[in-house]
Model the fold of this input.
Amino acid sequence: MSHEAEAVSSRGGGISAGIKTPRPKSNWLKHEMAVPKPWAVNVGRFALFIIMLLLWEIGARSGLINSFFWSQPVEIARTWWIGVQTGAVWQDTLYTFRSTVIGFVLGTLGGTLLGLSFWWSKYYARISEPFIIMFEAMPKLALAPIIVLVFGIGIGSKIAMGFAITVVITTLTTYNGVRSVDKDLVRMVYSLGASRMQVFRKVIVPTAIPAMISALRINIGLALTGAIVGEYIGSERGLGRMIFYAGQTYEISLIWANIFNLSILSMLLYVLIGKLESLLLKGFMHQK
Amino acid sequence: MSHEAEAVSSRGGGISAGIKTPRPKSNWLKHEMAVPKPWAVNVGRFALFIIMLLLWEIGARSGLINSFFWSQPVEIARTWWIGVQTGAVWQDTLYTFRSTVIGFVLGTLGGTLLGLSFWWSKYYARISEPFIIMFEAMPKLALAPIIVLVFGIGIGSKIAMGFAITVVITTLTTYNGVRSVDKDLVRMVYSLGASRMQVFRKVIVPTAIPAMISALRINIGLALTGAIVGEYIGSERGLGRMIFYAGQTYEISLIWANIFNLSILSMLLYVLIGKLESLLLKGFMHQK
Amino acid sequence: MNAYKMELENVSKTYLGTDGNPVNALGPIHMQIPNHRFISIVGPSGCGKSTLFNIISGLVETSDGAIYVGGNRVDGLTGITGYMLQKDLLLPWRTILDNVILGLEIEGIPKKEAKAKALPLLYKYGLKGFEHHYPAQLSGGMRQRAALLRTIMYDREIILLDEPFGALDAQTRAMMQEWLLDLWDDFQKTILFVTHDMEEAIYLSDEVYIMTSRPGTIKRHLMIDLPRPRKPQIITSPQFIELKEEALRTLSEETMRAYQQESAG
Amino acid sequence: MNAYKMELENVSKTYLGTDGNPVNALGPIHMQIPNHRFISIVGPSGCGKSTLFNIISGLVETSDGAIYVGGNRVDGLTGITGYMLQKDLLLPWRTILDNVILGLEIEGIPKKEAKAKALPLLYKYGLKGFEHHYPAQLSGGMRQRAALLRTIMYDREIILLDEPFGALDAQTRAMMQEWLLDLWDDFQKTILFVTHDMEEAIYLSDEVYIMTSRPGTIKRHLMIDLPRPRKPQIITSPQFIELKEEALRTLSEETMRAYQQESAG
Amino acid sequence: GGRSTASSGPDTAVPAKAAGNTKELIIAEPVHSTGYLPLYIAIRKGLFEDIDVKVVTLSGGSAHTNAVLTDQAFGFIGGPEHNAFAKAKGAELRAVVNIVNRGNVYLVARSGLDPGTDIAAFMRGKSVAVTQYGGTPNSIIRYLAKEWGYELDKDITLKEVDSGAIPAILQQGQGDVAVVTEPILTQGIQEGIWGEPFYNVPQELGPYAYSTINIKQDSITKDPETVQKFVTGIQKGLEFLQDNHEESMEIAKQEFPTMAEDLLKTTLNRSYEDEMWEFSGQISEEAVTTGLAVVRAAGLLKTDTIEYADIIDMQFVK
Ligand SMILES: Nc1ncnc2c1ncn2[C@@H]1O[C@H](COP(=O)(O)OP(=O)(O)OP(=O)(O)O)[C@@H](O)[C@H]1O
Ligand SMILES: Nc1ncnc2c1ncn2[C@@H]1O[C@H](COP(=O)(O)OP(=O)(O)OP(=O)(O)O)[C@@H](O)[C@H]1O
Ligand SMILES: [Mg+2]
Ligand SMILES: [Mg+2]
Done:
């Protein structure tokens, strides 16, 4: 058997020899079982980040990268530091954070409820479909006049944007989750005399939960985008507003500095969502 | 047994009576099995659409809805008809269609490959994560100066927008699909001596396909959004440019007329994707 | 009151095959099930036993025919029978205990009460220490026991069991058999029981139906007139052996015929 | 050349329980499996039989101990043994035929060739007409047959079978038994076989291991010295009955002990 | 225009792609506006000789400048202050012909508010809806605030929003005053959201290099003939606009087919009235000085060293 011959290490003597040879492992076991060590991952990320910055700075200094269009790390860091000193960084980040989180929560809840509600009637689901698509297709920015009319220029319009942008995708994802339910489980529960409401509560909702949870990550990013678009429509504060400012006035380093802040914020949000996700998975699905 | 007594109809005589009573059905069976009739669905959609338009028009005429901000259906129809006559509708729609489809194809393929590639190394996947999130968090609209720099002012920048907006979500969705694989199936295939490549081809990819397919619907909408954003940044033609222009000049009816065109386009795209989806599901998953 | 607890009249099922043509999977089946009887159904694999149970429990629509319980037409209705499906179908996100009380929960019995009722049974049937485990952490046999307990806890007059003891070890199986007989006796249930083990079928039942191969119809209806209560030793009695040989001959005739048919055609 | 085809040395497995404490699920196990033997393993449900097979086939890491095949250490290596898992694990997106040839495909044998090899077996074992069906369309027994055929087609010297005949009807089971014996004889395989049916274990095997309840260790190692080839009638021979009674007594002792332990603690 | 690479800087000249005999020139406009009617007239009436001019709408910050600096577009429409911004970072751009020579914005007050005659006094404590920072309307209100001696956020609050949001803000009473341009100005008046402008920037600030056509210095050195042809065409467009009000209106209708006709007419009339266009194409020193003063007041231009000659080149205007 060639398979065997290739893969195993010779042991020499019989069992009685009792010499413990190092345990051989197949590749896949290592892979499927291993969870990368957090510190190694963080080191990797950090290293990659630093290398990218270094290449950029060197490229800019040597003229390979035109710093007129791209700016350069040292310059960006300087601009960023000014923001930290004036306190603008914290205020803008907090502002964007607040509207993102509220829009996210509302959009996710709304979309989940809507997606789940589709289970109740295929007819209703099919009728609603094109309207949902229509709503999704609307460029939210173009609706600025109406959005301001309805939601004002305060935090309301930013929340509305976050909501509008997350709700459709959550609806679709949840509905996909609902449709992926194991038909046999549904049958079994019906065989116990369950009502539709009971099947819904005891099978459909728990089945859809992983889909909903997997939508969280995507949603937080979208809610952030929504908040940024909302800030574009009109805002007094916020990272999005700062970036547009900078874009209008050729301050490329200010754009990057705020994109950096935005990345930090979005990373923070993802970390929070990650925690929430594993809490939910543990609570509902008993997975690690 | 109260259950029984409630639910069943009395039959009177014994079997020998041979009188066929109408067959009783439980609610859920009707629901789970019934597929809504296409004509009924279409009638429902159309009716809903007409009712909404009527309410809008009546509201505008009676002054309940401020038609300066909301415009009104008759006005929108008139504006739309001008577009049809001048041929602008077709040109703009075609332009947007083209960039959407190209962006969609590239973004979906790219995201799928990226998402699948994450299966190969958790370490690599974990390291890449924040960079992907960073990329996702960047407000594409604000990067206009740099986008124009990298992708030009032609169709390239619209395609790039569609790509940028779809690729991350496809990546995340595919990776979620990959992670949802039945561990026992993977074990079984390894037990047949499969290499990682074989497990990948024979289990991981087929498992991820439904997730990928379910991402198609979401992606086409996002690619459209991307193309629209690309047209905001700069364009000679396209529905997004028209909407942007209308917003600048406060032609609300023109905004709606183009949103209508956009809805038609997106519906068309969804229909096409729906066909593609059922083809793929049939081809790969043998589902109806 | 009817003479029979349940009657199947001309029940049959046709699936749509992959090629679009209808595939006749079952029937027509006629059965008259007296009250408080223990009935076994034995038949070649794929003859439609699971399909029949799905139909009786209202989970699959009949293509033709009618089902009556206590004189009332019930086909298409759920909640009439207790049914243990061939797959264990435990809800993966519930602990074993929560899975077992599912039927009671659906009936509206308070969780606490339901749990108090279920725990002794879990203890008795070797699931002690696993009440708060999730299905994925259990061995195959344990999962099947949990599914069986769930069905039993869902206290219906007619109980359908599709190969409930398939994955159990001999000792547990024997214990479960005795317990099932007790239960049937104590609570005056009517039990329909699918098994592949003819000895088990005869040992447990008042009547054994032997089915033909696909599309499954009733080939033979055997009355088991062994006295009750039966002791395990009964299986070595001449009467038992005679019945078993008779039944096995019928079944093997049928299986052979099926194989020959398939090899030929 | 070693005296033994396969040796298990001090193999054990500890899972992490729900409460975070380690749960001892198996072992330590010592086994010495001679070449070309038919070995059965019988034990109470949940004693770790499936866990043991998972370890031998390299799918689960041992917590302790080592496995040698032909003198080479192989624990953690896959592809050494052919393994039929307790679940059927057919790939739902492949037809039955494509599922059955999976092992050959992985070895790089052209699909056409593999299919030509598989079709006669499918015909012989009652899957004719179902080659191009998908797993969801098959009855439980048919799926199990397909899974068994897949393992057999994946032609390894050591074959692990975890309750392969659990869902088969008696006739098919008998046919499969004979066929398995033929195969073992013709191709000189070494077979490890888990079953809950002691009669089946003794009828098929050269050696029977009886395991203790969880954590499963070897309680008894029985040599079955019945002459080969064996006829089905052998089960009524005094020697067979004696062996069976002996084995059942050991097993029931163990199961009883386990139940008592659990009821007490 | 070809796709540029990251390394092609503002000074690396990539020759514009020639299509046959007629060169294709792309002009990037920040928005499609009646103010740029001379350009549209020149295109629609075929007033350019030997060159083929195409217009691309390119919004989004400095995108239009970047398009020119990377040779994806030949020129862009915008104030010469953009050339100053670029110059401050080391890139050379020149305004070669004037189009809009007035600060094309108006201050309006929410209906019901009476600004009276002392505008500075009226403005104290008001909140002003205006488009985003960096855009000229925003710079102008900042400039005016400074002139009045007001401090932002203290004496005057700015609500910086997308232009489409401005009417809604006044309608809802979230703002008192708006800085608007045509055609929203007229629409708001018609709708009764605000009254006639109480502060007419075109008249008050006088000549103001608001929208010029700016190209790369390189184009001037390497291919002056093309630049000449282009500028001549624009000048013909300006002349046409000056001489043929009726026909210009017809062209405007084709260019803005969906805009209400009376609205378009009012807009054009107001533009003529306020001497919006510089029909000679000349950019005066005074006009540039005003423009730069405004962006300096807004804090957009931080250097003081940039002069008229650094950003304007009038050699082609005949
Ligand atoms: N969804 C389906 N589509 C098409 N055919 C089906 C479907 N479900 C079952 N069948 C067919 O119906 C027949 C009866 O299946 P069933 O599961 O009832 O058999 P069974 O008697 O329970 O077999 P076993 O003893 O192996 O469990 C089989 O031939 C099977 O292939
Ligand atoms: N992933 C897991 N996590 C925790 N415990 C587990 C896990 N898998 C199995 N176990 C435990 O290990 C023990 C042995 O399980 P195993 O499936 O090997 O038993 P078995 O002998 O095959 O039983 P059966 O005859 O019922 O199939 C059981 O007590 C089971 O609960
Ligand atoms: Mg079955
Ligand atoms: Mg097992």
Observations:
- Chain A has three domains: 1-34, 40-70, 74-285.
